[in-house]
């Protein structure tokens, strides 16, 4: 049986679904960067890449060495190819400008270079999340610098999204808006090989993911819903639920794509002015696009995440995503 590599899949998409050649090239380059990040992550202590920097990012979070290195790998891989008008990252306050010596292109790339940083030093799965938007208007031909506004588009405008997970296997999960495909890195070939064709999230589930230590800070609908999950067979939902929390969104979402489940990171009262922990533009939007493309659902408790109108590059959003039956239930509880 001949193996379908990511490159071949993308070429076939270009032929059959009119995926533009520049988008294909962009995805190829992101995948190449993810391979390089995977390589660095796998070195661990041998590569001197574990531990923290003495810096904080724009969100006031201490940066890990691998956060910074992964960000640099993505920027360097993607700046020269001529497909991008700019990039935005969790690790950078402002959009990254394509250097004047390189051609510019029609797309915007947004990423969380390394998701699950708290897991790096303990050898638990981490990943890279990315989202691709079109640069509105003629922004790529102008000489001025690219501002935040170009990026502030709702998730429904994404033309592609994906994540790489660096776990026991390195995998790349990708949507171009026509289902979700999963590729596993064959380290001997050096290629991502299609291993999971048209992934579907089961409609129902008996597994949920939430950081229970924040329970006392949640608002009433989430408290009610989780107490019903915990009540199991004797409670109003009439079935027993299992719980998993990896604390790497990529790994929790990957489990949900594989066997179903519900992922929640709700608003909580620890920092009441912030609407949640996860970032809309490069965590919630790409993951919601992938989950919806696999037949799942994603809301902020009130509306579809993909329809949230962004107001700032690093804005946060509550997240409920996964098997539709449970996403709909918990969203319904917010509506009263
Ligand atoms: P990042 O490492 O990019 O800052 O993201 C971490 C996120 C997400 O991956 C995970 O679901 C969540 O933070 C875990 O948060 P807690 O530590 O509060 O459980
Ligand atoms: Mn993250
Ligand atoms: Mn991160």
UniProtKB/TrEMBL annotation:
What are the Fructose-1-6-bisphosphatase class I N-terminal domain coordinates in residue numbering?
5-196
As to how many cofactors bind and how, the note says: Binds 2 magnesium ions per subunit.
Query: Which keywords does this Swiss-Prot/TrEMBL entry list?
Result: Carbohydrate metabolism, Cytoplasm, Hydrolase, Magnesium, Metal-binding
Q: Required cofactors, per record? A: Mg(2+)
- How would you classify this enzyme at the top EC level? hydrolase
Pfam families from the UniProt entry: FBPase, FBPase_C
- The chain positions of domain Fructose-1-6-bisphosphatase class 1 C-terminal read 201-334
The UniProt record lists the EC number as 3.1.3.11
Residues at which Mg(2+) 1 binds: 90, 112, 114
Q: Which domain of life is it from?
A: Bacteria
Assembly and binders: Homotetramer.
Full protein name: Fructose-1,6-bisphosphatase class 1
């Amino acid at each position: 049986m001949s193996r379908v590599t990511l490159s071949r899949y993308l070429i076939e998409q270009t032929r059959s679904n009119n995926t533009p050649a520049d988008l294909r090239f962009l995805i190829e380059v992101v995948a190449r960067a993810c391979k390089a990040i995977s390589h660095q992550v796998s070195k661990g202590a041998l590569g001197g890449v574990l531990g923290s920097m003495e810096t904080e990012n724009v969100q006031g979070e201490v940066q890990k060495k691998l956060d910074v290195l992964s960000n640099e790998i993505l920027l360097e891989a993607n700046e020269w190819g001529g497909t991008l008008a700019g990039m935005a990252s969790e690790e950078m306050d402002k959009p990254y400008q394509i250097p004047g010596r390189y051609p510019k292109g029609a797309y915007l790339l947004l990423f969380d270079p390394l998701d699950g940083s708290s897991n790096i030093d303990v050898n638990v799965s981490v990943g890279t999340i990315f989202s691709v938007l079109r640069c509105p208007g003629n922004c790529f031909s102008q000489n001025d610098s690219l501002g935040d506004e170009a990026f502030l588009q709702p998730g429904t405008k994404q033309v592609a999204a994906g994540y790489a997970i660096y776990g026991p296997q390195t995998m790349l999960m990708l949507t171009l808006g026509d289902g979700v495909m999963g590729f596993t890195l064959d380290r001997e070939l050096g290629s991502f090989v299609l291993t999971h064709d048209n992934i579907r999230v089961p409609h129902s589930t008996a597994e949920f993911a939430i950081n229970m230590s924040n329970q006392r800070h949640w608002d009433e609908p989430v408290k009610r819903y989780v107490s019903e999950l915990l009540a199991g067979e004797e409670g109003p939902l009439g079935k027993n639920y299992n719980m998993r929390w990896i604390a790497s969104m990529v790994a929790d979402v990957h489990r949900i794509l594989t066997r179903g489940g519900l992922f929640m990171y709700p608003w909580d009262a620890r920092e009441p002015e912030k609407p949640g922990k996860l970032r809309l533009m490069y965590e919630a939007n790409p993951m919601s696009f992938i989950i919806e493309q696999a037949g799942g659902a994603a809301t902020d408790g009130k509306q579809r995440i993909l329809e949230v109108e962004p107001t700032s590059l690093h804005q946060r959003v509550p997240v409920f995503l996964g098997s539709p039956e449970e996403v709909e239930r918990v969203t319904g509880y917010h509506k009263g």
